[in-house]
Design a protein that fits this description.
The two termini are 13 Å apart. The chain has one domain: Serine Threonine Protein Phosphatase 5, Tetratricopeptide repeat, CATH 1.25.40. It contains 6 helices and no strands. It has helices at residues 2-10, 30-45, 49-59, 62-74, 78-87, 91-111. Helix 2 runs antiparallel to helix 3 (49-59) and helix 3 (49-59) runs antiparallel to helix 4 (62-74). The chain is mainly alpha-helical and 112 residues long.
Length: 112
């Protein structure tokens, strides 16, 4: 049992599960922000999701952050998806994810 527990702990990223920031995006002029968002959308549409993600985080572009969160969910990366939804902010997506996680934990507890 201890071996199983230790192997699970090895999979935890050293930076933790979710890294959130309450820092506001840097002040950008409206035209600079619009240009960056267009560039981020172009990256997203061509499949360069990491570059799109950096731009969407920098600009605080809600729709882009939600789309990146959805992309992470499709890749089976729910914690990073949750981070994007939190940064968006997208409380409906966060609530839905928390509800699913709570059901999973409840099932695990009832099985042990």
């Amino acid at each position: 049992m201890q071996e199983k527990k230790d192997s699970v702990l090895k999979n935890i990223p050293k930076e933790g599960f979710i890294k959130l920031s309450t820092a506001q995006p840097k002040e950008l002029s409206g035209s600079d922000k619009a240009a960056l968002i267009r560039k981020g959308n172009a990256f997203f549409n061509t499949g360069d999701f990491e570059k799109a993600k950096r731009i969407f985080i920098t600009t605080g572009y809600t729709d882009g952050l939600i789309r990146i969160g959805d992309w992470h969910l499709k890749r089976n990366e729910p914690l990073e998806a949750m981070r994007m939804y939190w940064l968006a902010p997208a409380p409906d997506k966060v609530s839905a994810w928390i509800e699913k996680a709570a059901k999973a934990v409840s099932k695990w507890v009832s099985e042990s």
